[in-house]
Amino acid sequence: MPLNRRTFCLSSLAALAGAPLAGASGANRPNIILMMSDDQGWGDAGFRGHPHLKTPALDDMARRGVTFNRFYSASPVCSPTRASCLTGRHPHRIGVFGANSGDAKAPSKFPLRKQELTLAEALKQYGYATGHFGKWHLGNVKGDNANTPAQHGFDEWFSTVRKVSTLDPEDYVHNGEPVAPLKGDDSMHIMNRALPFIENAVSNDTPFFTVIWFHTPHVPFIADEEHKAMYEYHSESQQNFWGALTAMDEQIGRLRRELERLGAVDDTMLWFCSDNGARDSGPGFPGTNLPYRNGKATLYEGGVRVISLLEWSRMFREPKQVDMACSTSDYLPTIFDYLNIQPDRQVEPIDGLSMRAALDQGMTMRPKPIGFQYQKRAAWIDGRYKLIAQIEGDPQYELYDLESDPSEEKNLAAENPSRVQRLAHQLKLWMESCRRSDLGADYL
Q1: Average confidence score pLDDT of the chain
Q2: What pLDDT score does 145 carry?
Q3: Where are the extended beta strands (E) located within 232-322?
């Protein structure tokens, strides 16, 4: 029976009181893989009803595993969302305000601070091998100002500082050593490095935590001729965009087959999401966020509601849908909950919450709002209602009922002043908390 807000505390206590499925002290610790695409829209997958795009691996994950129907990226752009995945904290709390910039001669603009505790650092305390493969975007990966995955708990890394072409990529660094320009599909090269890491961990009977962050389908999205040919009757941009996504999907299928071959599939939590919605700025960007409004770099649903899947066959042998609102900030507390671990240090407050009650017991009402902040706007989702606020100059508010109006077509602010006032007050308190954290209060 679906859980509501009143029964959350009781159900959570019951879940925590039981013996952990895979306690970190036990021999059967689950492997964890966080996969993420880059600028993939809500509708950019076959299982979401796309009329042309071929994504058989993602479609099969949806058929067999868990599909999240209200999953949010912590930000409408990439670096902040990535920071939330690793820390469980909102990016404005930890200084990752926007997409990172910088090069080997200058510090990144919004690096992940070394005082933060990442999932990789926490899991290493419990014997996990840790690897990062693909787009880092949380600091430089070379030079005197480097802020690499190794400095945040990753044993093995094959990473770029920011976007690269999805075909013939350059600027990879492997464990501190620059890699020569590569030929062929970028997702393939990422998986070429991730799979040996996984195989080595399994062969050594070591649980592993692997982050695989694809560049696809971020610009410049370019597909090879084989994958473009699958969409030959469509425009050049569609051939490249859809072709690159299908190539990425093939690598996800390759990963799933390798887990099966290694006998690791049952005990691996395989997560997938996008870092934000698709760009919706013109015909040269074929991504789709429909039926949601707008896209990347906005706080409307099209910018922050993203595709999300989980496959963990030992726990979820039948397909299921999760309707509770969830977020990339929820990864860390969810993983800690299932592993029943408490690292020797923790930076708080945590903005995410464990999704376990939704996954195990069908909870539908999130007991904790989700906050967003990007540039001059902020948003607050509490249950079915979403407040969007202009936070510079004279305050301006939009209010939407996401249950009856998921496309955010009707602004209810004028007819619901008391609800606007209440949600705006909650949003203000949360933003003030984030500001205190950003100024260093959580590191004292």
Answers
A1: 93
A2: 86
A3: 268-274, 308-311, 320-322
